[in-house]
Amino acid sequence: MPSIIIVLVILVILVFIALIKTIQVIPQASAAIVERFGRYTRTLNAGLNIVVPFIDSIRNRIDLREQVVPFPPQPVITQDNLVVNIDTVIYYQVTDARAATYEVASYIQAIEQLTVTTLRNIIGGMDLERTLTSREEINAALRGVLDEATGKWGIRVNRVELKAIEPPTSIQDSMEKQMRADRDKRAAILTAEGIRQSQILTAEGEKQSAILRAEGEAKAAALRAEGEAQAIRTVFESIHAGDPDQKLLSYQYLQMLPKIAEGDANKLWIVPSEIGDALKGLSGALGNFGGSPLGGNRSDNGGNGNGGNTIPKQGGGTERREQPPID
Questions:
Q1: SS in 3 state form for the chain?
Q2: Mode of pairing for the β-strands spanning 67-77 and 83-94
Q3: What's the predicted TM-score (pTM) here?
Q4: Under a CB-based contact definition with an 8 Å cutoff, are residues 97 and 153 in contact?
Q5: Cα 14 versus chain centre, distance
Q6: Interhelix angle for 107-123 vs 135-150, to 10°?
Q7: What is the pLDDT along the chain (327 residues), one digit of tens a residue?
């Protein structure tokens, strides 16, 4: 009796194990390779799957999602014999679980080695400057080679990125000096352009200011001249409206003579030759009122009377005389 119970327990355990091995649940975006007696039978997709227990076995479970694999820096020699370290990142996806299991032993290691060799071939045909400025070109070339080589492995390379390109330290120092010199050059050029533009604007402003100032002075001079002309016209019209005779003009003429000698520095002054005519007219006027002519003496030169302060001169004109200042 106890032996029968033991056998039944063993049978229950075996049945339970068989059920576990019969029912296989595959997660979403995953696949499983089934082998029967060591030979590939089929690929289990996501969901509930039934296999023959103790005959079928699960060889490998593969993630079908896109994977990201970074590779360590690899030393690569450029065309100008400089060693640069390049970090790469590969984005790949398994499209055929069977090929990824049986066509290559380790597709991760295979992709890494293929990336290194392809990268060395591509960089070996470029100099350092082109390597630093041609990331897109390198990525496209590397992706094309990897996608073609990994297609038979059931792998699709979606993207290849160069994470970092590190030239030697001496080259980095030279590049920094070159960049600093280039920035200083651009700064000097911009400063010179700013000074030039400032000087141009200043000159333009001074030019406009001079033009406006000249226009203002011209207008002011024109207005002053117009005002003086109007004043002269007004005086002239006033004189003509008053109808002055020769006697009044002679008297005004003689009144202006003392103003010529005003000032302590006036030691030399000019006596106009027309003063004889003025004295003649004034003496005639006084003779009419007082009955005796002014001056007593008459000149024989042209009939003009000259007083004690004038000296006759042949041909008319003016005469210069030295006279002390009038206090």
A1: CHHHHHHHHHHHHHHHHHHHHHEEEECCCEEEEEEECCEEEEEECCEEEECCCCCEEEEEEEECCCEEEEEEEEEEECCCCCEEEEEEEEEEEECCHHHHHHCCCCHHHHHHHHHHHHHHHHHCCCCHHHHHHCHHHHHHHHHHHHHHHHHHHCEEEEEEEEEEEECCHHHHHHHHHHHHHHHHHHHHHHHHHHHHHHHHHHHHHHHHHHHHHHHHHHHHHHHHHHHHHHHHHHHHHHHHHHCCCHHHHHHHHHHHHHHHCCCCCCCEEEECCCHHHHHHHHHHHHHHHHCCCCCCCCCCCCCCCCCCCCCCCCCCCCEEEECCCCC
A2: antiparallel
A3: 0.51
A4: no
A5: 83
A6: 140
A7: 677 878 777 888 887 787 787 888 889 989 999 998 888 999 989 888 888 888 888 888 899 999 999 988 888 888 888 888 888 899 999 999 999 999 888 889 999 999 889 888 888 888 888 888 888 888 888 888 888 888 889 999 888 888 888 887 777 777 778 888 888 888 999 999 999 999 999 999 999 999 999 998 999 988 888 888 888 888 777 777 766 666 666 666 666 666 666 656 556 656 565 566 656 665 665 555 444 444 444 433 434 444 444 444 434 444 444 444 443
Which residue's structure tokens are 């499209």?
95
Amino acid letter at 196? Answer: R
